């Protein structure tokens, strides 16, 4: 097995484990007929502070769970693959600090779901890409934004049924992480990129795209 394949398979471990946990929790609620939705973040309430730890694990229904599953898998794997030394730190900061900010500044509601992680991962990837000029990270974040085009509006209080605070503070913590770890996992250019950058333009063969010029040369 090549090193790249090994690296890819390793990058799947944490995202897949997290997804397995949230699916097991939801399936357990269904099979044993109980609900954990009261374990969301309830801002300003001491009893609701536990939601900082538990709310990303709890989802309203299977549609909610499915909507979060693929982005977490794609984005989590992407960060783990390209920024392996930063991934666990980014995951924990977005998870815990994002939740704490919701508890401190969110409106009075019961905030549940892992979408704050998605916004944090997208923001981290995009701003890391911009800061480091890492085209791979920007491309991955844009792919997810394209697939889930409403992401951009999720940080605005347009729908009171959606925890836009989780989205907003998830994105904020993702941006913070991009700056905190900007020197970790430096972007490694491919050989062909270096060759292109160092090439002497005066020595490059000129290729015309018009037959007229080719005839004139003759």
Q: What is the fourth-level CATH superfamily?
A: Rhomboid-like
Instruction: Detail the poorly predicted runs.
Output: 195-201, 210-218
Strand fraction equals: under 5%
Number of helices: 9
- Tally of separate domains: 1
In the CATH hierarchy, the third-tier topology is known as Rhomboid-like fold
User: Cα-atom Rg, whole angstroms?
Assistant: 22 Å
Number of strands: 0
Q: Please report the first level of CATH classification, the CATH class.
A: Mainly Alpha
On the 0 to 100 scale, the average pLDDT is 85
- What is the global morphology? globular
Looking at the overall shape, the CATH architecture is Up-down Bundle
- Biggest sheet architecture: none
Q: Pairing-aware structural class of the strands and helices?
A: mainly alpha
Could you characterize what this model shows?
This protein is an all-alpha fold and 218 residues long. It has one domain: Up-down Bundle (Rhomboid-like fold), CATH 1.20.1540. It is built from 9 helices and no strands. α3 (62-82) packs parallel to α5, α4 crosses α7 (164-180) and α5 packs parallel to α7. The protein is globular and about 45 Å long. The N and C termini lie far apart (53 Å). The model is unreliable at 195-201 and 210-218 (pLDDT under 50).
